[in-house]
Amino acid sequence: MSDDIDSIKAEVKKLNAQATQLKMDLHDLSEDLPIGWEKIPEIAEKTFKSYQQLTDARKRLAAAGG
C-alpha cells in the first residue's frame, strides 16, 4: 500500500510541476497579446487537461490514504 501511495505522490509532484509550467506559459502568452493570440486555444487546452489530470491524481492519493 505504501508503494502505491509513494507512486501516486510522485505522480502528483510531476503533474503539479507540469500544470504550473503550463499556467505560466498561459500567463506569459496573455502578457504578450496581441502577439501569439493564435496559440491561446492550444495552450489553454493543454493547461486544462493538465489540471484535470492533477485533480484526478490528488483524488486517488486521498482515496489511498496519502
TrEMBL record:
Residues 5-32 form a coiled coil. Keywords: Coiled coil, Nitrogen fixation. Pfam families: Rop-like (PF05082). This is Uncharacterized protein. It comes from mine drainage metagenome.
